[in-house]
Amino acid sequence: MGKRAEHRETTERAILDASLRLLAEGGATGLTVRGLARELGMVPSGLYRYAAHRDELLTLLIAHAHGDLADHVRAAHDRVDVGDLRGRWRAIAHAIREWSLEHPQEFALIFGTPVPGYHAPPERTEEPGTRVLVLLARLGSDAEAAGLRPVLGERFDAAAGAGAAPALAFIAQAGLVLTPTTALAGISAWQLVMGSVLSEQFGYLGHEGLDFDPAFDGVVLAGEQLIFGAQAS
């Protein structure tokens, strides 16, 4: 790596670190190019080649947050034996919650109330933002290859057949094939997990509405049964 490229990489890392500090201190509304320049001891014009306005800073943070979440989830998933399908699901689910508790401001940025006037550019945020879903789809594909299918009844199968087409198109882009029933069961399980984490982060049930540690174990088990069926006792 040449000196110029090395300098740019160091500066971009400093911009990211300073932006994360500003996000933690004041949320997305506290993130401005001028504020970031002050944080870095630079003049605003010195940042324009890296981030000309607030939206570019937000895009940088959103892409980083999605990528960091996906890295954390993938690392937890990969520590489980590939043949332990239920264990892989539990690792994915618990890693999502762990990351949200360790990074509350970044979690709020990517899953909370949208920032007014900001629209994330898909070419920057779509790939990191869908990595966890691709990992989940791969788990569903492995489950089907192992002969495991959700057994949720004809009405669920019909709903999946009617509603899962966009998800199946996304899954096909990742080089995977799933039945509509497995796809919708996996999405439903993911939504259970995300709903629980959102409720914990934002107090939807009040901060004393649940004991979240054991309650989350129950949510993960419910999702597991959606995807794989009840485990034989």
Q: Give the number of DSSP strands.
A: 0
Structural class by sheet pairing and helices: mainly alpha
Number of helices: 11
Mean pLDDT: 89
Name the overall outline: elongated
How many domain units?
A: 2
Could you give a short account of the major beta sheet?
A: none
The CATH superfamily of the largest domain is known as: Tetracycline Repressor, domain 2
> What is the fold named in CATH at topology level of the largest domain?
Tetracycline Repressor, domain 2
Present the secondary structure layout:
Layout: H1 3-26, H2 33-40, H3 54-78, H4 85-102, H5 104-111, H6 122-129, H7 131-145, H8 154-163, H9 165-173, H10 180-202, H11 212-228
Helix pairs in contact: 1-2, 3-4, 3-5, 3-6, 4-7, 4-10, 4-11, 7-10, 8-10, 10-11
Q: Any overview of this molecule?
A:
The protein is built from 11 helices and no strands. By secondary structure, the chain is mainly alpha-helical. It has 2 domains: 1-52, Arc Repressor Mutant, subunit A (Orthogonal Bundle); 62-228, Orthogonal Bundle (Tetracycline Repressor, domain 2). Helix 3 crosses helix 5.
Keywords for this entry:
233 residues; mainly alpha; Tetracycline Repressor, domain 2; elongated
Quick summary:
The chain folds into two domains: 1-52, Arc Repressor Mutant, subunit A, CATH 1.10.10.60; 62-228, Tetracycline Repressor, domain 2 (Orthogonal Bundle).
